[in-house]
Amino acid sequence: MKKIYLMALSLLAVGATTIAQDCTGGRYATDIFTTVDITSDVNYGSNQSFSGATIQLDMDIYEPNGDTETARPLIILAHGGSFIGGDKSDASIVELCDRFAKKGFVCASISYRTGMWPIDSVNAVKAVMRAVQDMKGAVRFFYEDAANADTYKIDTTQIFIGGSSAGAVTALHYAYLDKECELEEFMSTSDITSLGGLEGDSGNAGYSTEVAGVINLCGAIARYGWMEVGDVPLVSLHGNEDDVVPYGRGEASVSGFGIMYLDGSRMIDEHANSIGIQSNFYSHYGGGHVVYSGNATYMDTTANFIRDFLIDQFGCTETPLQAANTGTGPAELYPLTHCGLGLSDGAQQMITTIFPNPSNDQMTVQYDGSVQLKEVVLVDLSGRTVDSYKVNSSQLTINKNDLNAGVYLLKSTTTEGVVSTAKIIFE
Q1: Is residue 320, in this structure, part of any structural domain at all?
Q2: Given its phi and psi angles, is residue 86 left (phi above 0), alpha (psi -120 to 50 degrees) or beta?
Q3: Which CATH number goes with the domain that contains 419?
Q4: 3-state DSSP: the chain helix, strand, coil percent, rounded to 5?
Q5: Domain shared by 169 and 307, yes or no
Q6: Cβ–Cβ < 8 Å for 93, 161
Q7: Radius of gyration (Cα) for the chain, nearest Å?
Q8: Of 28-42, 61-75, 116-130, 252-266, which gets the smallest average pLDDT?
Q9: What range defines the domain where residue 156 resides?
Q10: Do both 131 and 72 map to the same domain?
């Protein structure tokens, strides 16, 4: 994905202009409309579910009633449900769409493909990828409409994506996962290809997927380091006692079962600040998961904080309604290796082959015969050692046994203290 700020600079260089949003009369900051028009079940594409069935992808579009503006900002929101359920009728998403349409935004609540089996880290990654592809199809839908019928009168330079829980996870990966080699840490290249790549084919092919920012409500990302200098800004709200999607770095759960470690809003904000990306962050102190759902006070705080972020993007001068607060707990940024968790330089010299990789049950690691090994351990992505091996020859057999499907790191240490890391995947 191109970086939105760098793209804006290049446009200025050739004299192009974008449409600035006019905040006159309190538009975008206050409820200047009293009623909202809802167009239900708008089809934006289709794609294959995890079971191979063809799924029609629909959304509900919210517009301010009686609006005459011809270039309006758009908010696309996705529901929660742990990637195994939920739909566009999610109450908290409907509430946010209604609130922001009354301020002059166009909003869309999208349904996307859900479901996975078995429930494990490999299939969870695939579910996230399917959701990202569907959200991209929805964004392309509005670019296609703006270029042709212009039914919804969207300013395509002001498209914001976001969601609640799984929907926020979707939006974060949409915005910051922009290289297939990043995803290869978690799934095989063949799986990435079979699923349709990062862009996918959920509809409206050939149109842009550029967005202007992210609305992250109780979300997380597999690796905060996928957010890089020049990426789009974001606004985040998260309960610091969330036990479903981690507030800091921790294990995300599906139906009460821990699936994989993710970097939550606290880690994302810390990293964004370290590389100069605007990150407006609010912690619901003492709050758990999606505390705004069914709670008017928390919803007011959430909507106001998002509102302040959005009008700031437009250059509006209205007084903020909800000040940011300080994150709690540790947010220690760990070392990152971008697109390099296959064989490290040391591993390339130490290991001649790993086959088959990925594997369903067993794989063989062949070491260079000159290497004297002291220790070989297998760790999961949280850093926990799950197995260790004694290597008395140049060949090592690794059995899946009772390991969960997922990505692991094979760490080999020589008698001279040289450590190498190789990625292996059990399916």
Answers
A1: no
A2: left
A3: 2.60.40.1220
A4: 25, 30, 45
A5: yes
A6: no
A7: 23
A8: 252-266
A9: 4-314
A10: yes
The first and second tokens of residue 414, run together, are: 């020589």
Q: What are the CA-CA distances from residue 62 to residues 25, 74, 95, 368, 422 (Å)?
A: 21, 10, 11, 62, 49
Q: How far apart are the first and last CA of the chain?
A: 29
Task: Tell whether 228 and 300 lie within a shared domain.
Answer: yes
- CA neighbor of 351 nearest in space, from 260, 421, 426: 421
What residues form DSSP beta bridges with 385? 379
For residue 335, is the peptide bond before it cis, meaning its omega torsion is within 30 degrees of 0? no
Helix, strand or coil for residue 366? strand
* Whole-Å CA distances, 403 to 211, 326, 391, 406, 427: 39, 39, 20, 8, 10
| Per-residue pLDDT tens digits for 174-219 | 999 998 888 877 888 888 999 999 999 999 999 999 999 999 999 9
The answer to whether the predicted template modeling score (pTM) of the entire model surpasses 0.85 is no
The rounded distance, in Å, linking the Cα atoms of 254 and 220 is: 14
Q: Cα separations (Å) of 356 from 22, 208, 427?
A: 58, 38, 11
- Both 218 and 275 in one domain: the answer is yes
Two tokens, residue 383 = 């850093």
- Distance between CA 53 and CA 87 in Å, rounded? 17
- Structural domains counted in the chain: 2
**Tokens representing residue 29 in the block:** 């900051």
